[in-house]
Amino acid sequence: MDKHKGEPSVGALIDSDDLKYINDLYGHDAGDAVLKTFAKVLEDNFGQLGKVCRNGRDEFAVFLKRTTMTEGRAIFKKLFRQKLTFSYQGKDYPYTISLGFAVYPDQGASREELLNKADTALYAVKMTGKGTMAAYHPDMVKEGRAQLGFNLRDLAVNLPGAFFIYRADDRKILFANRELLRITECSSMEVFIEFIGRKVKGLIAPEDYAEAVESCDQQVGNSDDTVAHMVKNPYFGEIYYVILSPKPDQK
């Protein structure tokens, strides 16, 4: 930026989505493979257009010299058209990225200010679902990365009812909130997993298991009475989100 003072440039922050999930599911070697692959992808795409540098654990900064907002958007769109995969133990796995960007000098007169605006745009992407990009706009409100993490953690842990997530293919429980641990009288997630044997089946009496699973499957996609919701996750496949709160007419 100092070498091209006054000329339009674009600063972007890009990170790989759900790196923690990849580390938890495949191990830290897989997470490192994502970062190495990601770094090469960024260098291949932007190395001739500007500068790529590591900005954090799973975050990279990109500076595109002599680039306007419109030109930057077009360049970044090419990145999102690519299918991103990383290789681990002989297999290829998909991953997604999120990107926020801002333009110099209109939205940031210094490198620090430009990256701050790009971070605000990246935060906006994270709040709306990840896997896409956004240009900074003054209407964007940045409460801080810590606030995003707190909101999600607080919501999951303190839902007013028992809540858990499990994988559809093998019924393996991936997460349980504090209320479910309390109901099962488990002091921690580790104790809970040991208690139920990791599977949904361990939560339900044998004579009720088939009926409970059928009921859960039937509720997926319903509107007013839905307590279970199935989504497709790129790392875990089909997973169920289940709330065990009693319905109003059962209280």
UniProtKB/TrEMBL annotation:
<dbReference type="InterPro" id="IPR029787">
    <property type="entry name" value="Nucleotide_cyclase"/>
</dbReference>
<feature type="domain" description="GGDEF">
    <location>
        <begin position="7"/>
        <end position="138"/>
    </location>
</feature>
<dbReference type="InterPro" id="IPR050469">
    <property type="entry name" value="Diguanylate_Cyclase"/>
</dbReference>
<dbReference type="InterPro" id="IPR043128">
    <property type="entry name" value="Rev_trsase/Diguanyl_cyclase"/>
</dbReference>
<protein>
    <submittedName>
        <fullName>GGDEF domain-containing protein</fullName>
    </submittedName>
</protein>
<dbReference type="Pfam" id="PF00990">
    <property type="entry name" value="GGDEF"/>
</dbReference>
<dbReference type="InterPro" id="IPR000160">
    <property type="entry name" value="GGDEF_dom"/>
</dbReference>
